[in-house]
Amino acid sequence: MKRSSSKSQMIEAMDGFDRLPDSLILLIFNSISDIKALIRCRSVSKRFNSLVPQTESLSLKVDCVISPESESDSLFTLFKSLLKSIHDLFKPDPKPTARNQTQNSPARILSQFDRIRDLQIELPAGDLKLEKGAVIKWRAEFGKSLRSCVILGFRRVANPEGNSADEEIDFTGGLKTRVVWAISALIAASARHYLLNDVVKEHREMERLVLVDREGEGTVAMEKEGLRECREEARGGEWEEDGGRTVVPCVRMRMRHEQRVQLKDGVWMEGVTLVVVRPCSGGGDVEDAELALGAFGGGIYGEAVQVLLKNKSYLLEMNSF
After folding, report:
1. Residues 6+ away with beta carbon under 8 Å from 60
2. Closest alpha carbon to 101 in 117, 84, 123
3. What's the rounded Cα separation, in Å, for the pair 124 and 131?
4. Distance (Å, rounded) from C-alpha 112 to C-alpha 46?
5. What tens digit of pLDDT does each residue of 85-144 get?
6. 3-state class of 223 per DSSP?
7. CA–centroid distance for 189 within its chain
8. Which of 105, 127, 157 is nearest to 261 (CA)?
């Protein structure tokens, strides 16, 4: 009798779930967003199998970390590693071929979804190999090419009880290093942007695309207008690239520097540099402060940005590369 009662309750619960409208189930799927979980949901029932592809908000995480000693440090290699990180979600063919590798690319995985509007892709690590103690954070906005990039770099966070506060940091001597930081961030951003080419072309309803990394180093963002511009460029076959990355146009870099920034909790950031990068033509009307605070609006980075925005700026111009 107990077994029969338990079975009856389970059937009633399933019937109750089946009475939920598709719109509510899709709302749940959008809240889940994780692609691995959603692909597994497709095996639950025929109804789920038909509804999962209609999910509009998705998050794709790359789990496989490429060793720093790897001969190739390119982001393309990181994306190829997606094959390993989601291997359990696909039935492998007995003989690996070039076609099978293509099927495991991000674009192929995302082809299972028909109505993507908001997509976030997360890499397992950042791209920059910096000297010990150096930290760089950046955020780049793209259309068909770079629209803006905000870069925040510093040497280290130090406790004021040490002797480092009595040392002098030479801005002129360190200018070359800071320019290298900025160029490195721009190259990393343009490489990430290039890798999104196929995803942008194949999902025409997408209104927002963000590529981040788990370490919080850098972010590439594309909004609705930028995505539209990108598709038109790709359709015309004129996507300008160089060695697996989007070409960075001629840019103006407005740089601000502070030898030391003391934060509210008493901690010091040393050798702090803020760089706001815009194309020489069509850089937009947004003020530096709005871009910088939009990229690093909260926490210790936002606090440092607010200090640097009050400082004198230096303007550098760089040719396309």
Report:
1. 35, 106, 109, 110, 119, 120, 121, 122
2. 84
3. 20
4. 15
5. 433 343 434 444 444 434 456 677 888 899 999 999 999 888 887 777 788 999 999 999
6. strand
7. 9
8. 157
